[in-house]
Amino acid sequence: MFEFDQYLGFLAFLFILTMGFWLMIFLFALLPYWIGGSLKEFFQEKKEERKKKKL
């Protein structure tokens, strides 16, 4: 079966694999929200600038 060092290597592999999996899910969930919010804020600022210039 497994020797102790093989078992530790397998556990390290599983830990790194699951850590990467959850990081990927976190980034794909957070990045669109972050980009969308910054675009919304950018367009609001541009709209306010145009409004001030108009007056």
Structure notes:
Keywords: Membrane, Transmembrane, Transmembrane helix. The chain crosses the membrane at residues 7-35. The chain is an all-alpha fold. The protein has one helix at 4-54. The radius of gyration is 24 Å and the shape is rod-shaped.
Query: Which value, in Å, is the CA radius of gyration?
Result: 24 Å
Q: Treating each run of at least 4 consecutive H or I residues as one helix, how many helices?
A: 1
Segments where pLDDT lies below 50 for 5+ residues?
Answer: none
**End-to-end separation:** 80 Å
Summarize this structure as a short list of keywords or feature phrases.
1 helix; single chain; 55 residues; rod-shaped; 93% helix; mainly alpha
Task: Please specify the SSE layout and strand pairing.
Elements: H1 4-54
Structure described in brief:
The chain has one helix at 4-54. The chain has 55 residues and is mainly α.
